[in-house]
FAD-linked oxidase
Amino acid sequence: MLPQAFSEIDFLAKDQIKTDEESLKYWGKDWTTYFDIKASAILFPRTADDVVKTVKWARKNKIALVPSGGRTGLSGSAVATQGEVVVSFDQMNKIKDFSPVDQSVVIEPGVVTEALQEFAHKQGLFYPVDFAATGSSQMGGNISTNAGGIKVVRYGLTRDWVIGLKVVTGTGELLELNNGLVKNATGYDLRHLFIGAEGTLGFIVEATIKLAPAPPPMKVLVMAVPGLDSVMKIFAEFKTKTSLVAFEMFSDKALAKVLENTGLAAPLETQSPFYVLAEVETRNEQDEEHALGVFEKCLEESWVTDGVISQSEVQAATFWRYREDISESLAKYSPYKNDIAVTISKVPNFMADLDKILASAYPTWEVVWFGHIGDGNLHINILRPPGMSKEEFVKECRKVDVMVFDAVKKNQGSISAEHGVGLTKKSFLNYTRSEAEIGFMRGIKKVFDPDNIMNPGKVI
C-alpha cells in the first residue's frame, strides 16, 4: 500500500523525501536507545501548507505519522517503530516576524533553541528556557513536550512563553490559536492542549514566543553537601533571601563521570556525597552580599562543608558544566533514565524513599542522581553493567520502576517531569493520571485525530 500511496505525494519535491536506510535510521530515532527503528520514509515539509497536504494524504491512506525535531527526547516520543512515516521539521527553521513593542517573535517549529536564544540576545532580550540540549533541540519539540530545564525556578516552563500557535490537526485542519494575545477570555484555550501533547493531537507549524528583558548579572555557587537532608534547607535559604534563578543537585558519582569525560578540574578540594549549584541574580553589591551571607549561614549550620562562588562569566560557565555535562558523560553507559517530580515541600521525604529503594534494588549497580531540586524534579540514571544485554537490562530496570513509581504516587508526583510520556512511560501513566483523566485524554485525541494517524501509540 505504501508505494502506491507515495505516488500521490506530488505536493513535495523529490529532495523533500528520503527512503534510504541510513536516513530512515537517522531521522526515525530520538535519544532513547532501546527501540528498533522501522520508519518507512522521511518527509521534509517547508511550509504549513506542506504539512496540511501531508496530513490529508496520510489520513486518506491511513498512514501513521511521527513528528521529528531535534530528536533529543528521552521517552521515545519521536521514534518510528511500526513502519510510520516520519515528518521532519528540519527545513521549517525560520525566525519570522519580530515585534519589539510586544517583545515577541514568530518562529517555525524547526528553529533550534540556541538560535532563538541568540536572536533574542541580539534584540537586547532573553529567551529563558534553557537546558543541556539547546544546541540541537528544536522549538517544536520543546513545545510538544513542554520543556523545562535549569531556570524553571525563576522563569517557568516552555508553556509560560508560548503566546500563540498554529497547528495542523489529524484532520488536516490548520488552527490559529490565541494569536499572541495577552488577554483572551473567549472560552477554551486550545493552545495549551497542544503544548505537551507530544504531537498526538496535531503538528505545530508556527509559534509566537514571548521574550523576557535581558537578565541582570549572575553569580553561580557550587557547594559541597554532606547529606540529602541538607539540600532543601539550603534551597529554602537561597529561595527566601536571594533572587534565585536555578538550584541544581548532583551526586559525587555524577561529578566523577563529568570530570573523567571532560578533563575539568574538580570544583572544590572537599569531596562530598552531594553537591548543589545555585545561580542568583546580582544586580548590585547588596545582592552579592546577600548571596554570600546565605552561603555563610549554610556553612555555620553545617548544611554545606565547602563552596565557591564564580568571579567571572567564564568561571560561571565552567561551574554550569559540572551539572550540564552529566548526561553526555553518561551516554556511553546506555543509562536507563527516570525523570520524576513531586512538589517542592515533599522533596526531602521523597528523596529518602528513593534512596532506600535504589540502594536495595541496585546494590551492585551504579546509580547516578542529579536534578532540578528547585522545582522538585529528579533524574535517576541507572548505568548498564558491562556484559548485560540491553533487553535484560531494561527488563530488570522495569521491575524497579514499579517501586519507584509507587513512591511517586504516594507523594502525588509525576512519573515524567519534563521528558514526556512517549513509549517509555505509557504503561505507567496511571501512576500519575486517574482513569477518568486518561479517559478524557483519549476522548480529546479522538476529536483532533479521529483516524489515529498523529504519532499513534504514544502517551496513551
